[in-house]
Amino acid sequence: MSAAGETVRPEAMRALYARGGASVAFVGADDGVTLTYEQLGGHVELLARRLAAAGIGRGDRVALALGNGVDLVELLLAITALGAAAAPLNPAYTAEEFSFYLGDVGPKLLLLPETQPAARRAAAAGGVPVATVGGEVGAPPALHVEGRALVAEASFSPGEPDDVAIVLHTSGTTSRPKQVPLRQANLMASVRTIAAHYALGPADVSFCVMPLFHVHGLVASTFSALGSGGCVVVPRRFTPQRFWPQARAHGATWLSAGPTLHQMILDKLDDEGAPASLRFVRSCSSALAPALLERCEEIYKVPMLEAYGMTEASHQMASNPLPPAARKAGSVGIPTGLEIGVVDADRRFLAPGEAGEVVIKGPSVTSGYIGNDAANAESFFDGWFRTGDRGVMRDGYLYLEGRLKEMILRGGENISPAEIEEVLLRHPAVADAVCFGVPDATYGETVAAAVRLCAPADERTLIGHCRASLTSVKVPKTIYILDEIPRTATGKVQRRRVASFILEGK
After folding, report:
1. For the chain, how are helix, strand and coil distributed in percent, rounded to 5?
2. How do residues 338-362 score in pLDDT, each as one tens digit?
3. pLDDT tens-digit map of 213-222
């Protein structure tokens, strides 16, 4: 087992904005609106009092389906200020998806912009009250319920570290999404750990490219920057074409994104190149191919630090460190702020160098899923959480081999899809790749893959490329060439769903 960092004292999220002062907390990348810490604190307190006028208080849940922006963060913080729980939802959901998530969360109120017909239909069908968010850019958002503006209450009871602050859902890559309650103390433990690991401070500027309904964009890019007194630059809608001029204009010192977004950013590099202000770049949410890591460092011209995050851990669990400490390609780094272990199928801890399931324990980890006793019994034991990932510790660094449920079992041998994807991505004609298992009467499963090309290539050429680097049992029997590989909104691939899509389509 790896040693954890020092114990983090439980803290309420008010610490993210209570410092006050004239230093800039937020900048709108598109409209240039700035918000100081003093203004942020004032807006949050006012919004909390407005929400209190709508009957929101400790223990209630408030759902939000808003695009990225300062107003979304202000409302999230205002909800937590009341001791209530915010449930940020992807504003691009269909009406059917909104119905599922609203039914699962059971919010007392849903916050929406003027134009959001799918969410409004779902809310009406489910009997969920709606508050419309509007007002002038740069001012505290105005809230209207049934056409009536909410007038702020005189005061409210502030939230505490043990209150649930955010309710998120697991990505559901292999099963039905589960509700994850993250307490204020969980989130603040993660914030402090991230800020310390990357030496974040008041001079840092985070460029937020990830969606704020996702734990990556919310905790890593935003809350951690605020927790260290820095500035967050938030585009309303991230576009790779606009990233480079915006990052230079605002003096970004760091950014964090998934590999897919990094690839998109690099593909849109302009003649002026990366901002001279950058000091590191972070990658998380899915595996970073070594070839992409090399290209990132070549273009960004700063260290690329691969990290390991999960909703149940309030995001970060491990990360490669800043120089002069070693960052190791193919690893997700060293434990940060919690303990990491590797266990076998009987939950016995394994020695370094032995592969098994990755388990975690620490102050940022949720205490359990909401309303899912079966999942809790399966996922938690003796204070440890089972991540569902297969990995191995070597010299204090964690190397992941893939999701246990996505491992390909061929003739009794576990094959990591990520290893095969890495080989495929080294071919110059392959822009994207996903590997998965397909049923086989003799071996149980055989290896298949799908690729998106950026140059001409055929299946025979790609299989030959794999044979040069992989043992025969790992070489894909079939490689499908697709126009696009389906991914989640945060760029995460869902191997089993891709396999089903391809096989059913064929």
Report:
1. 30, 25, 40
2. 999 999 999 999 999 999 999 999 9
3. 999 999 999 9
Dihedral angle, C-alpha 74, 78, 83, 89, nearest 10 °: -50
Of 124, 121, 142, which Cα lies nearest the Cα of 133? 142
- SS3 annotation, 57-95: CCCCEEEECCCCCHHHHHHHHHHHHCCCEEEECCCCCCH
SS3 328: coil
pLDDT digits (tens, 9 = 90+) for 307-342: 999 999 999 999 999 999 999 988 999 999 999 999
- Strands 61-64, 109-112: pairing is parallel
**Are residues 434 and 484 in contact, defined by beta-carbon separation less than 8 angstroms?**
no
Residue pointed to by tokens 């890559």: 173
Q: How far apart are the first and last CA of the chain?
A: 45
Give the pair of three-digit tokens for residue 55: 């009957």
Rounded CA separation 500/164 (Å): 36
DSSP SS3 for 170:
coil
Handedness of CA 139, 145, 146, 149 (dihedral sign): negative
Beta-carbon contacts of residue 172 (< 8 Å; ≥ 6 apart): 178
**CB hemisphere CA count around 243 (13 angstroms):** 25
Across the strands, what pairs with 111? 64, 131
| Residue pointed to by tokens 């994807």 | 421
Q: 232 — phi, psi (to 5°)?
A: -115, 125
Residue type, 239: T
Q: Which of 84, 39, 69, 91 is nearest to 137 (CA)?
A: 69
Residue 122 near residue 98 (C-beta atoms within 8 A): yes
The structure tokens 């690099």 sit at 266
Q: How many CB atoms lie within 10 A of CB 58?
A: 15
Residue 161 CB contacts under 8 Å (≥ 6 apart), including other chains = 10, 11, 12, 183, 184, 185, 188
Residue (of 412, 413, 410, 483) closest to 448 by Cα position: 410
Q: Which of 189, 178, 260, 191 is nearest to 226 (CA)?
A: 191
| Token pair listed for 369 | 């899923």
**What is the b/e burial string over 437-446, where b = at least 16 CB atoms within 10 angstroms of the residue's CB?**
beeeeebebb
Q: Enter the tokens of residue 374.
A: 């079966």
Is 284 within 8 Å of 262 (Cβ atoms)?
A: no
